[in-house]
Amino acid sequence: MNNFAKFQDQLQAGAVFFKEHFDPKQAVTIVHHNDADGLSSALIASTAVERLGGTVRRIALEKPYPDAVTHIQTAQEEGVILYLDFAGRSAPEIAARNSKQRPILILDHHLPTPIADPWVMNVNPMFCGLAGDRDLSAAGVVYLFALELGAANKDMAHMAVLGAVGDGQDHGDAFTGLNADFIAAAVEQRTLRLASTGGVRRGSIPRLGNASVEQMAGDVTTLGAVGYLEAGVDQGLELLEQGYTDELRQSLAELQQMQQEKFAGMERTLRQGGLQSTEHIQWFDLCDAFYPMGVKMVGVFCSNLRDQDWLDPGKYIAGFQWIPDYVPGLGVINFDATKVSMRIPSPLAQRMFAGQMPSLLDFLPAATQRLGGFVDGCHSYSAATTVAKGSEGQLVTAMEEILAGLV
Length: 407
Ligand SMILES: [Mn+2]
Known about the structure:
Blueprint: H1 3-21, E1 28-33, H2 36-51, E2 56-61, H3 66-73, E3 81-84, H4 91-96, E4 104-107, E5 120-123, H5 138-149, H6 157-166, H7 177-188, E6 204-205, E7 211-212, H8 213-226, H9 232-242, H10 246-274, E8 276-277, E9 281-285, H11 296-305, E10 316-322, E11 326-327, E12 331-332, E13 337-343, H12 346-353, H13 364-370, E14 374-375, E15 382-388, H14 392-404
Parallel strand pairs: 1-2, 1-3, 3-4, 4-5, 9-10
Antiparallel strand pairs: 6-7, 8-9, 10-13, 11-12, 13-15, 14-15
Helix pairs in contact: 1-5, 2-5, 2-6, 2-9, 5-6, 6-7, 6-8, 8-9, 8-10, 13-14
The structure holds manganese (II) ion (MN).
Manganese (II) ion binds at residues 37, 85, 109, 137-138, 167.
C-alpha cells in the first residue's frame, strides 16, 4: 500500500469515529491554530459540520497549552472536540486530561506522537510516510477529512491551497505532493485561477473578489496572529469566507502598521548589540515588547531576520516572547511561560535538508523537555516550544549540550 492509500485509511477511520460520536444537538468544539493554515482548517471543518446539520464553537489557540486544554475539556459542553493544525504531538497529554471522556479527533500535520485511546484519535500524514512540511498542510488534512464526510466539500480545495501557501510549503520551489492535487482540484472547481506566470502565489480566488492567493494567506495570518488578542481571528475567518471589506482593510492597515513599527524597533535594538550568541545559536528575548501582538509574531520576526546580512548565516536563530496570561474566548489563564521560536538561515537550512546538520527536531524538543517545557507544532526548519519564564538562557545551554553530541 502506498503512503497516500495508508493515509486515506486513517482519514476514513477518523470520519467513522467522528460520525459515530457526532450529535447535531451538541455543538462540535473546534480548537484551532491562529494562522492562515489554522483558520482555513477551522473554516473547512465548520462548513463540513454545518453541512451535516450541526453547529460549532470555535476556540483559537496559539498552541494547545496543557492549561488551556484542561480548561476546554472540562468545560460544561459535551460532544466532539476537534484539534486542528496542532496537538498531534500532544495526543498523550490531551488524553490524560480527558476526564469527561469526550470524543477527540486531532487533525494535524506536525510531528505526531502515536496514541492508543478509545476517546482520542490522532490523524496525521506523518504516520504514513508523507511529509507534513511539504506534501500538505493542516488545511489539506482537514479538506481530505471533509471529503470523507461528504463529496460536496470538494468545493473547499482552494482553502487547502491557502493553508499550504500560508505555511510556505513550497520552500522556494513549486508545490508538490498532495498540495499539487489540491491546486488542480481548485482550478477545476473554479475556486482558483492561475496566472500565466508566477505559480500559485500569483493566482487569484474568483469567489473572493479575485483576491490574490499570496495576499489573502498573508492577510489572514496578520488578522489571526497580529490581531489575536483583539478579535482578529473572527476577522480572519470573515476574510476567508467573504473576501475583503472596507472594515477589514482598515483593521489590516492598523495591524500592519503596528507590526512594522514593532519589528523595526526590535531590529534596531538587536543590531545595536541585542543579539546574544553561543557556538551554534544566535538568540534574543523580546519579553513583552511585541504585546498585544500574539506570540506567533516572534516566529514571523525570526523568519524575516533569517537571511539578513548582519546575522550569522551558520547559526540557528532563536527568539523568545512572553505568552500573555489570557486566551480570547476562555479568559485569564496563568501560563507564566515564554515561547521560543526557531528558524534556520538559508545556507544552514540547505545543509540541514541535505542531512549534514541537525534539524530543529533533533534538539529543540529534547532540550525543552529537559526543562519541563511544552512541545508541540515543530517542523524540521521551523519550530517553537514553551518554557517557564526566566529559563531562556538554560534552554539555550541545553540545546548546545545536545548539539555538541550531534555536530
Ligand atoms: Mn500548519
